[in-house]
């Protein structure tokens, strides 16, 4: 993941965005100290955006694809009401264990259920209702189009799909890798889709918001 904005401006944005609760900061530090791919965490600014979207939508049910060590899941759970529910999909039991250990230390952790296993299989096994208010896609990039097609019918009208890394370090301009081609195909799919209103944000590595019409 790269940030596409000037590093000084990126720091300024970081410093002028509300800080996360202490436990999230501890999770960020723990992941950075112990995991070589800690850069996958959404971090302070995108975490705050996710919380903001959940509050604006008055969301109660959230689906996440790609838990990793739990930063985005815990960020979103904090904004859910006490009876809110977040299902987060992860195939790697080691990172899921770290995530659960942090969720269990949070007053909001009881809202989170980790679905261990392949995300596509997990989503396909979900019942058609109740629908989700928000779905956050942040796992294997080659499957973004498939995740989108499976998730959209399970999101309520007016609900939101948020997809991370949709600029793929700028590679979408001239995709050369399977991941880059998949993200570019996903972006074209959303852009052509009459079922959603959509906007791409130049935040971090690119974030797409698609609201179901
Ligand atoms: C970019 S990281 C998610 C970062 C997370 N949202 C955060 O803020 O910390 C992507 C995660 O998706 C998981 N993943 C990749 N492919 C998957 C699949 N097919 N099913 C379930 N999880 C998958 C990876 O193991 C990885 O932990």
Automatic annotation (TrEMBL):
<dbReference type="InterPro" id="IPR029063">
    <property type="entry name" value="SAM-dependent_MTases_sf"/>
</dbReference>
<dbReference type="GO" id="GO:0008757">
    <property type="term" value="F:S-adenosylmethionine-dependent methyltransferase activity"/>
</dbReference>
<dbReference type="InterPro" id="IPR002935">
    <property type="entry name" value="SAM_O-MeTrfase"/>
</dbReference>
<dbReference type="GO" id="GO:0032259">
    <property type="term" value="P:methylation"/>
</dbReference>
<keyword id="KW-0949">S-adenosyl-L-methionine</keyword>
<keyword id="KW-0489">Methyltransferase</keyword>
<keyword id="KW-0808">Transferase</keyword>
<protein>
    <submittedName>
        <fullName>SAM-dependent methyltransferase</fullName>
    </submittedName>
</protein>
<dbReference type="Pfam" id="PF01596">
    <property type="entry name" value="Methyltransf_3"/>
</dbReference>
<dbReference type="GO" id="GO:0008171">
    <property type="term" value="F:O-methyltransferase activity"/>
</dbReference>
<dbReference type="InterPro" id="IPR050362">
    <property type="entry name" value="Cation-dep_OMT"/>
</dbReference>
């Amino acid at each position: 993941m790269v940030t596409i904005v000037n590093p000084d401006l990126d720091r300024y944005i970081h410093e002028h965005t509300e800080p996360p609760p202490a436990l999230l900061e501890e999770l960020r530090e723990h992941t950075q100290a112990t995991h070589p791919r800690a850069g996958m965490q959404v971090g302070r600014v995108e975490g705050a955006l996710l919380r903001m979207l959940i509050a604006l939508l008055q969301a109660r049910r959230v689906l996440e694809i790609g838990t990793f060590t739990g930063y985005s899941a815990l960020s979103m759970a904090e904004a859910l009401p006490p009876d809110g529910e977040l299902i987060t999909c992860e195939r790697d039991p080691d990172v899921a264990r770290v995530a659960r250990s942090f969720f269990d230390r949070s007053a909001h952790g009881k809202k989170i259920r980790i679905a261990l296993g392949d995300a596509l299989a997990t989503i396909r096994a979900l019942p058609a209702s109740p629908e989700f208010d928000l779905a956050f896609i942040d796992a294997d990039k080659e499957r973004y189009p498939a995740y989108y097609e499976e998730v959209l019918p399970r999101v309520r009208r007016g609900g939101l799909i948020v997809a991370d890394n949709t600029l793929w370090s700028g590679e979408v301009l001239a995709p050369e890798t399977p991941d880059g081609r998949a993200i570019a195909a996903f972006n074209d799919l959303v852009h052509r889709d009459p079922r959603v209103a959509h906007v791409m944000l130049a935040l971090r590595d690119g974030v797409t918001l698609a609201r179901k019409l």
